Amino acid sequence: MKKIIILALLFLTVSFDSPKSSAFDVGEWFKFRIHYGLVTAGYATLEVKEATKNNKKVFHAIGRGYTTGMSKWFFKVDDNYESYFDKVTGKPYHYVRKIDEGGYTKNQEGFFNQDKNTILVKDYKNDTNKTFTTPENVQDIVSTFYYLRNHPNVDKLKVGESIAIDMFFDDETTKFKLKFIGREDLDTKFGVVPCMIFRPLVQSGRVFKEQESLTVWISDDDNKLPLRIKASLAVGSLKADLESFKGLANPFTIKVKK
Q: For this UniProt entry, which residues form the secretion signal (predicted)?
């Protein structure tokens, strides 16, 4: 069960590209139940607030993942991720990463200079400051979720086509790809919801079975609401389902309500 919450939270952040801020707004809030079958391992939340950076109003997104119940006794997780990003361009100004995963901790902040294509990472645990060169339009792990939800070509993708962006994580920039799998109606606690299905391309290894071991279901409406994430792990599988939400910017399309 190691790192289940952070993995789920990470892959909740991969959905689409180029925020015109129509898919979300200040006040949006999600809560996801992370589980093995009927057993709840923990929860993850994402919310959008407002803050001020460089004398202008920006989005302040906060993501948190934590274990509950018996899972907390076996492997305690308490992760906090934050991102401050521009309301118009979606470019991030500042991120926060403060995690505790079974005693493994990180306490970092990153400060983007989008004009110079650099990022200053302050590591408070190790008392270090490092500057990294980045590509243009690079995203952090949380801003990626919001940046991608409004990609102008999402609804135009054909099955098998992918979207790629640059994402800065763990002191390096990764080329992240998201492949469109198709559409289907998903049975959720809210009812039957029309969905788009995507598969993030991830590196295989100790945790995931293969490169394409994650599947993400996103509402096929103007919200691009993440409804389910399924991960095939080296041992068993993990799901994260949307448990509750509020503050959606657009009507939520449900075919059959429960």
A: 1-23
Backbone φ, ψ for residue 98 (5° rounding): -130, 110
CB 162 within 8 A of CB 201: yes
> Could you say which of 3.90.1070, 1.10.3470, 2.40.360, 2.60.40 is the CATH number of the domain covering 4-257?
2.40.360
**H-helix or E-strand spanning residue 67:** strand 56-67
What type of residue sits at position 108?
Answer: Q
- List the Cα angle 75/98/51 in 5-degree steps: 135
* Interval 157-178: pLDDT, tens: 899 998 888 999 889 998 888 8
The whole-angstrom separation of Cα 99 and Cα 11 is 16
Q: Are strands 237-246 and 128-133 parallel, antiparallel or unpaired?
A: unpaired
